[in-house]
Amino acid sequence: MRITAVRGTDLFVGSAAAARQVVRVALSGPPAVARIRVEGKRVFTPEPVIADVRPDGVTVEVGVVFQAPEGSTHRVTVVAESAGQRVTAEADLVVAETGWTMWMVSHFHYDPVWWNTQAGFTDTWLDLPLAQEKRMNFQRSAFDLVRAHLEAARDDEDYRFVLAEVDYLKPHWDTFPGDRHDLRRFLRDGRIELVGGNYNEANTNLTHPESTIRNAVYGVGYQRDVLGGDPRSAWMLDVFGHDPAYPGLMADAGLESSAWARGPWHHVGAKRHTGDIGRMQFPSEFEWISPSGRGLLTAYMADHYVAGWGIERQDTLEEAMEEAYRQFSTLRQVAATRNVLLPVGHDHNIPSRFCTEIHRAWNARYVWPRFVVGLPRDFFAAVRADAAARGTAISVQTRDMNPVYTGKDVSYIDTKQAQRAAEVVVLDGERAATLATLLGARYPHEALDKAWRQLVYGAHHDAITGTESDQVYLDLLTGWREAAERGGEVLDGAIAELARHADTSGEGVAVFVLNTLSWTRDAITSVTVTPGTTGARVVDPGGRPVPAVTDAVVRHPDGSLAELTLTFLATAVPALGYRVYRVLDADTVPPGWTVRPSPPSIENDVFAVEADPARGGALKRVRDRRTGRELLRDGGLAAGLVVQDEHAEHPVWGEGPWHLLPKGPGRGPGAAEVVVETSPLGERLVATASLDELRITQRTTLWRGVSRVDVRTHVDGSVGQDRLLRARFDFDLPGALPVAEVGFGAIGRSFGFPDVDAAEHLWTLDSPAHTWAGLSATARVALVRDDGTRTAHAIGVAEVVEPLEPGPEVRALVAVMAAKGVTATCTRPGGPRYGALDADSNLPDVRIVLGGDNPFAAEVFAAAGPAYRDAFERHGRVFVPATRTRREAWVPDADLRGPRDLPVLVVADVTAATDELRAGVLDVRVPDGLDGTAEPADSYSVAVVNHGTPGFVVDPGGTLHLSLLRSCSGWPSGVWIDGERRTAPDGSSFAWQHWTHTFDFAVVAGEGDWRDAGFPRGAQEAAHPLRTRQVPAGGGTLPSTLSLIAVEPAEVVLTAAKAAGNPLASGAVAAPSDALTVRLYEPAGTPATAFVSLHGGVRSAWRTDLLEERGEPLPVDDGRARVDLGAADVATLRLEPGVRARGLAGEFVPAAEPVQPVHTRYWLHNEGPAPVGNLPVSVHVTPPRLKLGEDGRARFDVTVGCSGRRARGRVELDLPPGWRVERVPDLGYDLEPGEHARMAVEVRGTAASGRYLLAARIADDHGQVLEDTAEILVGAPPVGDDLVDVTLATEAIAVEPGGSAELVVSLANRAQSEIRGGVAVISPFGTWAGEVTIGPRVQPFRLAAAGRTTVPVTIRAAATARPGAHWWALVRVTAHGRLTYTPAVEVRITG
Question: Does the keyword Disulfide bond apply (predicted)?
Answer without folding.
Answer: no
